[in-house]
Amino acid sequence: MIGINLKLLRKRTGKSQEELSSDIKLTRSTYSGYENGVAEPSIHTLIQIADYYKIDLNTLVRKDFSEFKDKDWENCFSTLKTDVQGKNIRLLTTIVDQNNEELIELIPQKASAGYTSGYADSDYLKVLPTFNLPFLSKNKKYRSFPITGDSMPPVSEGSFVTGEFIQNWTTLPNGTPCIVVTKNEGIVFKIIYNYLKEKESIQLVSTNPIYEPYFVHADEIIEVWKFVNYISSDLPEIKIDQENLKKTLINLQKEVSEIKNLFSNK
Hints:
Layout (H helix, E strand, L loop, with lengths): L1 H11 L4 H7 L4 H9 L6 H11 L3 H6 L7 H7 L2 H4 L21 E3 L2 H4 L2 H4 L3 H4 L4 E2 L10 E5 L13 E6 L10 E7 L3 E10 H4 L1 E5 L8 E4 L3 E11 L10 H23 L2
Parallel strand pairs: 1-3
Antiparallel strand pairs: 1-2, 3-4, 4-9, 5-6, 5-9, 6-7, 7-8
């Protein structure tokens, strides 16, 4: 069925095999084999194709396009844009230990550039470092990402932020720190403000005020991971606000005054 779906989808969008295979970085003979049923595309390739056509992966692999009417095709091309609640498949590949318990994959800085294409590829994930944090829930999925730049103090460049995988993005309250994986920018760590129901977009805000907030449409989002904790070799600078500093000085003055009075009365 996959081969038939690929052929009908390509013809529906007016693409040639040569054009399509070039766009998704495959040889024409390889792609032709998929359409003709000679070979089966990997899950990574299926994700590439679904993203290319901007359709839902679940629709591509489970629906029979040979039975589609015009209305079905219309719905097919609109599902991805409206799926902000995680109703369709968001494929999440994971690594487990010898006891079949999920591990936390750590994405090294050198591997982060390839994450947007390798996040669902078991071959990409299985060579990554993994670790376990026993105090985290076993019923949730976690992954740790590298942080670059100075946009999110006190989290400094070189830190690793661990996030919890979020299936339904609309559940995230405003002001939630998240790792957002996007098609164009890759891995970004920001405070999010949720406009998915109104605009099918989220606003990304830095804790460093010199960086302007900006919007990302749901079409551009691959994954969202809610902040859990972070690992850093830098000790955050401790700052006392002016009001607390003033109170501290007043208390010190009182204590010094009391000591002076105690000695003067002897």
